[in-house]
Amino acid sequence: MLSDQHWNAIVANDSSFDGLFFYAVKTTGIYCRPSCRSRVPNRAHVTVFEQAEQAVASGYRPCKRCKPEGRRLPDEDWVDQIIRIIESRFAEPLTLDALADAVHGSRFHLQRTFKRVTGLSPAAYLRQTRLAEAKRLLANTDMPIADIASAVGMPSAAHFATWFQKNAHTPPSEYRRNCKRLIIHEQEGEQKYE
């Protein structure tokens, strides 16, 4: 159970508590030493363990920043964690610093490792994820383009239209029309073969 003493040690990054307990954050799936210099988590999301093994047994992964008990998360698993964050939070303003903070690593290590494992920078992966979602919404919904822009993390419809055309090589409205035409042709083809 998280006591005030535990919480105060976490907030103060108090190294005198290292080895006495470990804390895990439910929203990140990571466990740390009390001295970890990562951003202070929401207290409601923190669980305390006496042993690192208990955190591991509960499904938590070691922090890349403070490396509790000398454990180090394999790069591929760490990148999978970053990908999950990008894919679930792509509508937010995700900077490299925000990603690094979320996964308890340095921005430079994150950039290098992500690119080595995926072949893309985190920014390129974020762009690719936003583009895929924009295409899905354009093809499958009647949402206004301004709402789609907002849904993929771009508050300006004009900026979104320019960005979409640059990345998809067609304006969003034309992309939507082409998708609708394709659906109609597919439906007509199905009717011919019935």
Automatic annotation (TrEMBL):
<keyword id="KW-0010">Activator</keyword>
<dbReference type="InterPro" id="IPR009057">
    <property type="entry name" value="Homeodomain-like_sf"/>
</dbReference>
<dbReference type="InterPro" id="IPR004026">
    <property type="entry name" value="Ada_DNA_repair_Zn-bd"/>
</dbReference>
<keyword id="KW-0808">Transferase</keyword>
<dbReference type="InterPro" id="IPR018060">
    <property type="entry name" value="HTH_AraC"/>
</dbReference>
<keyword id="KW-0238">DNA-binding</keyword>
<dbReference type="GO" id="GO:0008168">
    <property type="term" value="F:methyltransferase activity"/>
</dbReference>
<dbReference type="Pfam" id="PF02805">
    <property type="entry name" value="Ada_Zn_binding"/>
</dbReference>
<keyword id="KW-0479">Metal-binding</keyword>
<keyword id="KW-0804">Transcription</keyword>
<keyword id="KW-0805">Transcription regulation</keyword>
<keyword id="KW-0489">Methyltransferase</keyword>
<dbReference type="InterPro" id="IPR035451">
    <property type="entry name" value="Ada-like_dom_sf"/>
</dbReference>
<keyword id="KW-0862">Zinc</keyword>
<keyword id="KW-0234">DNA repair</keyword>
<dbReference type="GO" id="GO:0003700">
    <property type="term" value="F:DNA-binding transcription factor activity"/>
</dbReference>
<dbReference type="GO" id="GO:0006307">
    <property type="term" value="P:DNA alkylation repair"/>
</dbReference>
<dbReference type="Pfam" id="PF12833">
    <property type="entry name" value="HTH_18"/>
</dbReference>
<feature type="domain" description="HTH araC/xylS-type">
    <location>
        <begin position="80"/>
        <end position="178"/>
    </location>
</feature>
<keyword id="KW-0227">DNA damage</keyword>
<dbReference type="InterPro" id="IPR016220">
    <property type="entry name" value="Me-P-triester_DNA_alkyl-Trfase"/>
</dbReference>
<dbReference type="GO" id="GO:0032259">
    <property type="term" value="P:methylation"/>
</dbReference>
<protein>
    <submittedName>
        <fullName>Transcriptional regulator, AraC family</fullName>
    </submittedName>
</protein>
<dbReference type="GO" id="GO:0008270">
    <property type="term" value="F:zinc ion binding"/>
</dbReference>
<dbReference type="GO" id="GO:0043565">
    <property type="term" value="F:sequence-specific DNA binding"/>
</dbReference>
